[in-house]
# Entry
Amino acid sequence: MDISIPPDYAIVTSEMSPVQNKLILSNVVQSTIKKIPRQDVQEYLHNALEKAFDILLMGSPRVGKSTLINAILKKDLAKTSPGRNACTSEMNYYEYEEMYTSSIDNTSLKTSTCSIRIWDAPGIEDWTKLDVSKHIKNLIKEKNPICLIYCASPGSYADITHIKIIIEECKKLQVFIALVVTNMYASDEVDDILETFKILLSQHCLQTKAIGDVFCYGTIGLCTLVNSIEYQAQGVKMKAAGVDDLMLGIMNSLSEEKLLQWCFALMDNGPFWIRSQSRIWKAFNFIKTWIGY
# Structure
C-alpha cells in the first residue's frame, strides 16, 4: 500500500486562510487513513481518538511556555504575559476539540471527537517545599500526557536536580520528554543549557540521532533550541526558528496511539504540515509498518 501526499495538496499559497489550511491537513490525514481497508484499523483509530489527550508544560516562569505552545498549535490558547512579574501560579489548562470522521461499514459515517488539554505547571521554584519526585510522579500518572515539554531560557531559574527527577519519572512512566531551550537568540548561554540537557538525557540513553539542532535519545526524549516568535534587539530582527523541528522531533519519537494524538493536536497548524510534508510522511511510515502494509 502506497501512502503518499495527493498532488493537489502540494501547491499552497500564503494567501490561504486558516480554515483552508485546516482543511488541507484534514484531507491529507483522512485521505491517507481511508486507504486502509481494514475495519479493525478504523475502529482502532476511533478508539484512540475519541478521548481527551493531555500535553504537559513545565518550566520556570517567563521562559516562553505559553508563546511556544501557541506557536506549536497555531492557536491563541495559552495566555502570554511578558514581563518580569509574569508567573503561572497554579495548574491551569487550556482545552479545545478536533473531530475525525470515517466510513465504518461503507454505508454510514462515524465521527469521533477528541479533546486536547494543555496543562501549564507552576514554576519550578514553587516546588521547593514539595517532594518533587512524588509530585512529578503523581502529576504524570494523573495526566498520562502525549508528551512533557520542559522549557528553560537564558537567565531563568532551573534546578538540575529537579530536571533529573522529571526525566527519571518520565522514563519510568514511559512519557516522552522534550527539553527545550527557548529564546535561543538571547545570549550565548543557550549553548550551555543545551549541553546540560544533552548530558542529562545521555545518562538514560545514548544519542540516537541529531537532525539540525534537534538531538534525540531514543524513546526517552530530545533536546533542542527554539525561538517561538520573531526576535528583535538593537535594530536586528531574527525570524522565529526551531519550532517545526521540535514538532517533527516529537512526532518521530512517539509510537502508535500517542503519535496519532500528537498529529491531531496539531490539526490547526496548516503551515507546519505544508512546510514539513516531505518529512512528515516518514513518521507515518511507522503506522504503515505497524498495520502490516
Remarks:
- Strands lie at 52-59, 92-103, 109-120, 147-152, 176-181, 209-211, 214-217, 221-225, 231-233, 236-238.
